[in-house]
């Protein structure tokens, strides 16, 4: 981890969750109100359909609620999309932008991701900007170059430690049970930290850099102990309170 940066354990429920899942969310919130919250901040990014009810369900606890995407425009004829201001209006505080599943499923470019991040800031939200290499890019030895390109293109000028979180997610590690070696995670995060400091100075040194991709209770301690890993972005293991809180609890021993 980075000394002096309070870790963030963030969940991404992806296209999972209905009103029946709010009990699980409350259990997560209660965990962060107790022991799990002693070492880390907690966030769960729920489907847009659950945003308002999720905010209500965790009210009075330290768990933050976020969305998983936003449109770059403030309003307009964009059927099916949601604006950052609508997310803020629900009481959420964060939004993921540029997740690899959005980049792949919806062909989102770095420039579109940057526009979404800027829209999030205008609405007062924290933008969690995701980046990471594919399996083919890693095998071609292009990982660091890809990260540089994505960081340069996806993170707008004006990024600060308060309005931005960066999540490094190797695409091939998402939902596969595969994770990079500790050395590879360390190399990627050190590279991202250097790039952030070069661009944003001291703010870049304070920005949270999360690792995501098959994080679970069993590997959380090892991954969260890596230098410049300031938390985790968790998909599958964020759906059950026992798993997500297990990951959060690993912060204290890391
Ligand atoms: O946003 C979360 C990531 O895509 C990681 O998902 P995963 O923990 O299921 O591998």
Automatic annotation (TrEMBL):
UniProt keywords, alphabetically: Cytoplasm, Gluconeogenesis, Glycolysis, Isomerase
Residues at the catalytic site: 99 (electrophile), 169 (proton acceptor)
Protein location: Cytoplasm
GO molecular function per UniProt: triose-phosphate isomerase activity
InterPro entries: Aldolase_TIM, TIM_sf, TrioseP_Isoase_bac/euk, Triosephosphate_isomerase, Triosephosphate_isomerase_AS
Catalytic activity: L-erythrulose 1-phosphate = D-erythrulose 4-phosphate; D-glyceraldehyde 3-phosphate = dihydroxyacetone phosphate
Coiled coil feature spans: none
SUPFAM superfamilies referenced in this protein's UniProt entry, alphabetically: Triosephosphate isomerase (TIM)
Keyword Amino-acid biosynthesis on entry: no
Family annotation (CDD domains): TIM (cd00311)
Highest taxon of the lineage: Bacteria
Pathway(s) annotated for this protein in UniProt: Carbohydrate metabolism; erythritol degradation; Carbohydrate biosynthesis; gluconeogenesis; Carbohydrate degradation; glycolysis; D-glyceraldehyde 3-phosphate from glycerone phosphate: step 1/1
This enzyme's EC code(s): 5.3.1.1
EC category name: isomerase
Binding site for substrate: 12-14, 175, 214, 235-236
Function noted in UniProt: Involved in the gluconeogenesis. Catalyzes stereospecifically the conversion of dihydroxyacetone phosphate (DHAP) to D-glyceraldehyde-3-phosphate (G3P).
Record text on subunit structure and interactions: Homodimer.
Family label: Belongs to the triosephosphate isomerase family.
Name of the protein this chain belongs to: Triosephosphate isomerase
Natural source organism: Chelativorans intermedius
Lineage, opening ranks: Bacteria, Pseudomonadati, Pseudomonadota, Alphaproteobacteria, Hyphomicrobiales
């Amino acid at each position: 981890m980075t000394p002096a940066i309070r870790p963030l354990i963030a969940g991404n429920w992806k296209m999972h969750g209905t009103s029946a899942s709010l009990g699980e969310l409350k259990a997560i919130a209660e965990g962060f109100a107790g022991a799990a919250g002693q070492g880390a901040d907690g966030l769960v990014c729920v489907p847009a359909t659950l945003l308002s009810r999720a905010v209500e369900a965790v009210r009075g606890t330290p768990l933050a609620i976020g969305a998983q995407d936003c449109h770059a425009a403030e309003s307009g004829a964009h059927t099916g999309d949601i604006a950052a201001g609508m997310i803020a209006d629900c009481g959420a505080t964060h939004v993921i932008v540029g997740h690899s599943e959005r980049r792949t499923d919806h062909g989102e470019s770095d420039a579109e991701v940057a526009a979404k991040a800027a829209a999030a800031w205008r609405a007062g939200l924290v933008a969690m900007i995701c980046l990471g290499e594919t399996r083919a890019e890693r095998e071609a030895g292009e990982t660091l170059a890809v990260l540089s390109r994505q960081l340069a293109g996806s993170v707008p000028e004006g990024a600060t430690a308060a309005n931005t979180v960066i999540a490094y997610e190797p695409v091939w590690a998402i939902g596969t049970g595969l994770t990079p070696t500790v050395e590879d995670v360390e190399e990627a995060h050190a590279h991202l930290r250097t790039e952030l400091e070069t661009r944003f100075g001291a703010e870049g040194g304070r920005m949270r850099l999360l690792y995501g991709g098959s994080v679970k209770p069993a590997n959380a301690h090892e991954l969260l102990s890596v230098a410049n890993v300031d938390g985790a972005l968790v998909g599958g293991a964020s759906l059950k309170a026992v798993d997500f809180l297990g990951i959060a609890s690993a912060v204290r021993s890391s």
